[in-house]
Structures are given as C-alpha cells and as structure tokens.
Amino acid sequence: MTSLFSGILSKVVSPILERMLKRCEDTNLCLNWEKSHFMVKEGIVLGHKISKQWIEVDKEKVDVISKLPHPIIVKGIRSFLGHAGFYRRFIKDFSKIARPITRLLEKDTPFNFSQECVDAFQTLKRKLTENPILIAPYWDMPFELTCDASDFAIGAVLGQCQDKHFRPIHNASKTMTEAESKYTTTEIEMLAVVYAFEKFRSYLIMNKSIEFTFKVVDTKGAKNLAADHLSRLENPHQNVLDPKEINESFPLETLNLGMSSQQKSKFFKDVKHYFWDDPYLFKIYADQVIRRCVSGVEVVEIIKACQYGPTGGHHGPNYKARKMFDLGIYWPIVYRDAQNLVKNCDVCQRQSKISQKDEMPQNSIQVCEIFNVWGIDFMGPFPSSRGNKYILVAVDYLSKWVEAKTLPTNDSRVVCKFLKNIFARFGAPRAIISDRGTYFCNDQFTEIMQKYGVTHHLATPYHPQTSGQVEVSNRGLKRIMERAVGENRASWSNKLDDDLWAFRTAYKTLIGCTPYKLVYEKACHLPVELEHKAYWAIKHANFDLKTVGDHKKVQINELNELRDQAYENSLIHKEKTKRLHDSKIKNRVFNIGDRVLLFNSRLKIFSDKLKSRWSGPFTISQVFPYGTVELSQPDGPNFKFNGHRLKHYFGEDVPKLVVPDLQTFAKDHKIQGISIPGNVKTHA
C-alpha cells in the first residue's frame, strides 16, 4: 500500500512542486527551509492561519495583543491600533468600537484615556480572541456584495453562499468625511457602492479583459443586516451643538446663492457680531467694544488723518491699526491699509537707518597665487612723527603679507614710488584694488598701471567692503601700533618696522599659518628664541652637499603643499563666512527701472538730530554683478553705488523742498573702462 501511494505522489505532486520551485528560482525568491512545509492541510502565512476551507487569525499573535496593557501615551495608541487593525477584516464594527480611542489621535486633543477608551480597548482584545473565521473564496462560484449607508458611515460585506448560508469573506466599513456627509441620500447610497467595488476590486475583477454585468437589487434594511449595521455607526458630533432658539426673522435667501456650505457657515458665524443702528453699522468685538464700520471715502479720510494729521506721529503699521481701533472705527482690511500707507509714506521712508540686514550678498575675491593681487590704502593722518603723518599700506590677498611705508604726504607721487618698490621685490601683480581717493585716481597712477600691465579695480563709493582685505589689515596694524607706542604717540614711525615684524609672524586663521611661513616656507626666528636658547640657536648642523640638496627638495615640496593648503583653507573660510553673512540679510532684488532712495552720509539739510540722510528718489538705469547699481537723476550724470545703501521707494515723487544737493555726487571719469567719481573720497 505504501509503495502504491508513493508512486501516485511522485507522479502527481512532483511535477507541481518542480514548477513551483522553478517559478521561485526565476523570480529570485528565496525560501526559508525551516519555515517551508509541504503536504500539510493548513499553515501560518503572514500572521493568518490558512486552510482549504477558511482563514483564521494566528493565535500566537493574538495572545501577544491580548496581554498588552492599555496605552498611556499617544505612541502606544498608534502601536495598538496598528496591531489590532491588521486583523480588522475579522472584527465586525471595528471603526465603531475603536472610535473612542481614535479620537485621541486628533490634532490638539488632550490625552485622557477615559473609561470609555478602556472599554473599547478591552472589547477589541476580546473580539480578537473569539476565534473569528472568514471563508476562503471559491473562484468558480458567484460573489455576493451587500452594502448600505447611513448619515454617518458606509459599510460593505463580501461573501458567498455555501450550503444555502451566506458566509462572509471580508468586512469593511468607513466613516464619511464632512463633505461626504452632506451628500443626498441617493449620492450616499452610490458612494457605498463605489467604496465597496474599490475595496473588493481584487476579488471581483481577476483580469482586465473580463467584463462583469451587475444587477443592482434594492433590499430592505431588515434583510440586509450586516451592511446595514456597519453603516449605522454612532455619530460622535450629534450632541456637540447646543440647542438654540429659532428666531422669527430669517436672512434673505438670495444671500446664500453661489456660496458653498463652508462659506455659508462662516457667513452666519460672522454676521452675528454685527448690528444696525440707523444710519450706521456697528460690530461687537471680543473685548465687548462696539466699533462703527466705515467704507469708501470715509476710510481714506480717517487713515490720512491718523498718518499726516497733527496727532498722527508717523507710527508703524501695527501701531497705526491699533490707533484706528482705539478711535472706535473698523473696516475689514484695516491692517493691510495701514501697511500700505506706511509703506508709501515719503516721510516714513526717509527716517529709517541702514543696518547689516540691508547688505548685499557677499562675494569674496579668491586668489590662487601669492602676490597676484594687492590691496592698497592710506592710514592717517596721525600725529607728526619725524615729519611723517601717513602710512601707505599694501597687503597681498592670499598670503596676507603686509608692506607699509611712513610718508609725509598722501599724493600720487609717493604712491607710484611705493608701488615700483613692491614690483621690484615681488614682481608685477595681475591686479591692484583700491578706493576712489584722488591719490589713486589720476593720470600718473594710470600710466604706472599700463606700463606694468596691472589691472586697477576701484571700490564702490561709501562701500569699503570691496577692498575689505586692506581695511582689515589696517585695523590690525593700527591695533599693534596703539599698544606699542604707549604714551609717546609721536614715536609711531620709529616702531613701524617692529610692528610689521609682529604682524607678519602672527598666525592667520584664514590661511592656517603665518604670512612669513607661507612666503618663505619656514618659521621666522625671533629674538626671544636666542634669549631662551631654542634648539636651532644651540645646535649648528654641518650637512654635506647631497644632504643639503635633499633637504632643499623636501622644503620646496612642502612649500607647494603649504600654499595649496592655504588656498583651500582660505576658500573654505570664505564660503563659511558667506553662508553666515547671507543668512542674516534681507532678500532684496533691484531691477532696471526701480525707484530707490540713497543713504547719503554727506547730505546735511537739517541739524544732526533731525536730519534725513536719504536722498532721491533715483531710477536704476543698470544693474551690475556683485551688488553694484547705476542710478540716474533728472538733472545730473549717472553714478554708481552699492545696493547696501539703497532701498526701494514707494509713493509719489518727492516734493522740491526736500530735493538733495545734487552736487554731492561727482561726475564720472573713465579709467580702463571702470567708472570713477572723481570727487568722492574714502577715508581709511
């Protein structure tokens, strides 16, 4: 008998098993041998106990859920509903039972796990342990889909008729949204049908090429018990509204035409705060203050009186709106009108100051080779020291190496002589950056630049950040001089060489070393090392030529690596500085044709306490990269300024009484294609 059945199994089961394993191999599906079972009547698959006749829950999984304590935090509720919801197809009225618990997941709902929530929690666990059973579908038999709807929810049950009894395959229910609950009865019933077909589509449609013809049969609720019960869930909002007495007066029906239900709800909620006392309309505010509603020309008169009248004060928009409320006046867009009024007021626009937030995005000057770009500027005048009053400073943009010379005057002759000395020692650079002082903007200086093939870049007027490197070096050198001279202020010229020595041997975070080491690839020996017997001072090395040559090669390689590292450090530092700077400024965009006001520190119309430094408005005629803007004026030439000193102008033209002195802005001269206002000076 055993051999007989063995032959049948090998003929029937083996081909099927081989095809199944071949399919797994083709789809790269890996099987766990310990979890694989063959020739069994039932098995556990994805938390479900599946047999030929039915589907049950996995008792091991249910036992874990049944031992869980009730949640004490929102995260615990989500975890429990996630576990229990995995088996919701087995639990009838799952949404209705879990409703007290799911309310705690709503936004701005305080966590209070009441007795009602505890009962719901225990009911769900009990339902899972009652061994619910769903039958497996028979695909050669017709399906029966029953659905129903109520004012609150829709429900559906999919099943089949077996042994003359309806057996459920899957239960489903859904609480309607606020919009769906406003459907008509016919639309709600159709919504239940659509929901049922979407939910059970995988059962009803096995292939896209198969078409089904359905016959809709109206069944009484008494005969459609399962779906009818699922649709009649309790409405949690039915007792929220307090009963109100119906008024005898009703609003005009045409007011509701063309309004959605949400608009109608908001309209009737707002209208109860208004009342009519002929001939005026009033509104009752939350603070129980009654304010009269105004509109049209009356609004314009009131808002102008609050801004330009004797008691206006030109306050900000919030104070302005608050002042109108204190007057007992109201209209719906009072804050917007106050904002627009202050924004377009000429007087208010001319009284603000400029700050760091008004600066333009930072654009750093990145240099690849030392001594390729120099910044140059004057310091002084200082107290006379041996006939000298000024210091001419030049700084290399990459190595931060500083050259300085004491001078009795600040004119073009001494500048050209100083530059020739730098060119002879360090070579002709590619570019020199300076401010727009007359000692840098003249024919003699231009001739030197052209002779040595150097490009001369000029800083924007009143914007020393353009030549920021030399300005920073000036501050550092000045700080060293102030501490070095002490009480004898007239000795500063004698201390300059020592001050430069100190500056060149100071560590610079930007390059990661000292300027001296970056230029000469070795540390600078200081007098203090001799005094305290540093290693190099007490040891005298005697190398042969080969050893010295090998050592020099290593030094040259180290120098290249040091300069590459200095360039990378400088680039990283400047990118970090740019991110920090740009995160603190306003996002302002200037376009051609915009009208702007200019912050002019040289403008003097009133006394120091009451003067306005904003002049204009001017029109933008051209926008350059890196924040420079060219402005045009009606009665004078065009001139350039950095966007830091500009702000957009709103409103009418400025009266002639406050037109600034246009002689403040000099005529442009051209040097190597760069616009230079000749009379504007930048003091160090």
TrEMBL record:
The keyword Nucleotidyltransferase is annotated on this UniProt entry: yes
Domain of life: Eukaryota
Source organism of the structure: Tanacetum cinerariifolium
PROSITE patterns: INTEGRASE (PS50994)
Family annotation (Pfam families): RT_RNaseH_2, rve
Biological processes annotated in GO: DNA integration
Ranges for domain Integrase catalytic: 357-523
Protein name: Reverse transcriptase domain-containing protein
Keywords (A to Z) from UniProt: Multifunctional enzyme, Nucleotidyltransferase, RNA-directed DNA polymerase, Transferase
SUPFAM superfamilies cross-referenced by the UniProt entry: DNA/RNA polymerases, Ribonuclease H-like
GO MF term (any one): RNA-directed DNA polymerase activity
Keyword Transferase included in the entry's annotation: yes
Lineage: Eukaryota, Viridiplantae, Streptophyta, Embryophyta, Tracheophyta
